[in-house]
Amino acid sequence: MNSRTWFVVGITVLAVAAALLIPAMPQPLDYHDFSDKRAVFGVANFLDVASNAAFLLVGIAGLVVTLGRRAQFQFSVERWPYVVFFAGVLLTAAGSSYYHLAPDNETLFWDRLPMTIAFMALVCSQIVDRINLRAGLACLIPMVILGVASVIYWRVTEREGLGNVVPYGILQGYSVVILLVLAALKPSRYTLGNWLYWVFAWYVLSKVLETFDAKVHELTHVVSGHTLKHIAAAIAGVAVCRMLMRRTLIATDPGRLTGRS
């Protein structure tokens, strides 16, 4: 492995160590106290529920593009991490809608599960593109399982009264950091590789909107920060979809198939 690959491995080891060593922390219950509780057509928290239609549309569009001929792939097998990513986005529409109908720790599990699958798949897509095709594909199932395990672990510990959301939080942060590291250290084999920064920007905006949920609602009197968070996060998926449709292959690097680059 070259120095860039070792750097990625180092970050991964640090993330695992942090997940094991940081003291356990339960999910704060005030997380579920969203500002917009208006019911419409008998649906509680209507806008927080309905805004998940954005994930539904992006997930379907992404699967159509990725499984069809509009996405650009040097090798057909490269599409599978993106298929899993957009499937995760699609399932997030269902999981997040279910959660927002009655927000609590039990329903939050179904919100976080598909989101984590999407995060892990996107990381694998960039390993395939920027580091090594075979390694990235080999990582896909183990990384998805790791993501799912972090959410299951959090749920089990909450049910036992010893809630620990730390591993899940670190894994989510790790996926964002590793995407930025890969984008900065290793160029894509395709044009538009820097669109990954747009994905990051929309993700950051979604977290800001989530943090200032009530403040946004207070300022607009129409929509809350959490509702807009769903839209911003879905647009991050749109950026991935558009990238796949518009990019072209720059050059073939045999080392990225064998791990010798």
Describe the protein's architecture and organization.
With 261 residues, the protein is mainly α. The chain is 71% helix and 0% strand. The longest helix is centred in the middle third of the chain and has 27 residues. It is globular and about 55 Å long. It contains eleven helices and no strands.
Into which percent range does the helicity of residues fall? over 70%
Tally of structural domains: 1
The shape is: globular
CATH topology, by name, is: Rhopdopsin 7-helix transmembrane proteins
Count of helix runs: 11
If classified by CATH, what would the architecture be?
Up-down Bundle
Strand content: under 5%
Largest sheet: none
Distance between the termini: 8 Å
Q: What value does the average pLDDT take?
A: 92
Radius of gyration: 19 Å
Structural class: mainly alpha
Low-pLDDT regions: none
- SSE sequence, one letter per element: HHHHHHHHHHH
The strand count comes to 0
**Which CATH class is shown?**
Mainly Alpha
Short descriptors:
261 residues; mainly alpha; 11 helices
Briefly characterize the structure.
With 261 residues, this protein is an all-alpha fold. 71% of the residues lie in helices and 0% in strands.
